[in-house]
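Two folds, back to back.
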Amino acid sequence: MQGEASRVGLPTVFIRLTGCPLRCTYCDTEYAFQGGDWLTIGAIIDQVHAFPTRHVTVTGGEPLAQKACIELLTTLCNAGFDVSLETSGALDIGEVDQRISRIVDIKTPASGEHERNYWANLALLSPRDEVKFVLSNESDYNWAKQILIEHPITQRCPVLFSPVWGQLEPAHLAEWILRDALPVRMQIQLHKILWQEVKGR
């Protein structure tokens, strides 16, 4: 079940690629830093076809850190799937197939990785894409609000604000967004509400 972004609630096949060059303070997928199975792209496509949905999300770790990720994304599109990519925003998205919905994180100061943001990605965004800010506290919120002033992101694609699970009270984030009349969508991680802290969801 897709738990985030505008596709929340849709039955979705997740392809999780191993490895990530970032180490965000709130990371909830550290198990994806290593391990997993080596599969050909053909074998992955066969496995995806076994599920009764056309929605596919490629995620990680950081999927774009895998050399074959771009080819995998294009192959999924060619096979008729509706594909989204969840990426940290630290790597160039320019080679990603234009049929893909690119969900691009902008790392905030509390993540510990905000200096890794690849700002050139913002000029590549289209209405199919989405930008996500994962916020740990009010300082993160104010920082993200300033980024929206400096960059016309909301004119390019939807912008999502999400509280770090267990750190920022969702109601507080909702109050700030309403107070400031920000043109963003608030999201809460549905999969964590449904399955709590079960790893691999």
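---
second:
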Amino acid sequence: MIHRFEQLTTGVSQIYKNIQRIKKIEMRSLGLKGTHVMCLYFLYSHPDGLTAADLCNLCKEDKAGISRILSDLEEHGFIRYTHPQDKKKYRSKAVLTDSGKKQSRKVNRLILRAVLEGGRDITAKERDIFYRVLFMIAGNLDKFCEELEESSNVHFQLNNAE
């Protein structure tokens, strides 16, 4: 049982580190950082734009991180904001500029190349099973974390009530 834990954490960690390395190497050639990849990807996938809150949810990043990334992208001229009169910048949608779309197309080509390399020699059936099982594990661990947090909060409240 513990061996499975070791295999899972080591395998996921190795994949994550390699993805980070690919982002770093490839983004440097575009004058960007690895952290910009997912924002450019999602903004390209949503031509009407996304709010910072939308990007936080999609990229699984915190508000401060997304704010820094959006500031960088705006500074490079890759995004602009829609500014409805009654909304703050955080609630405004970021949309790609023509330059941002051009960079995003490059990013998407790099993503496609990495996906093809990562999936080399894997059959479609193996890939389907892998993703199904991966997301089952992710869902199970999400539920387990929620239960841990709930029991931890109850335990904390009981200890502080004494």
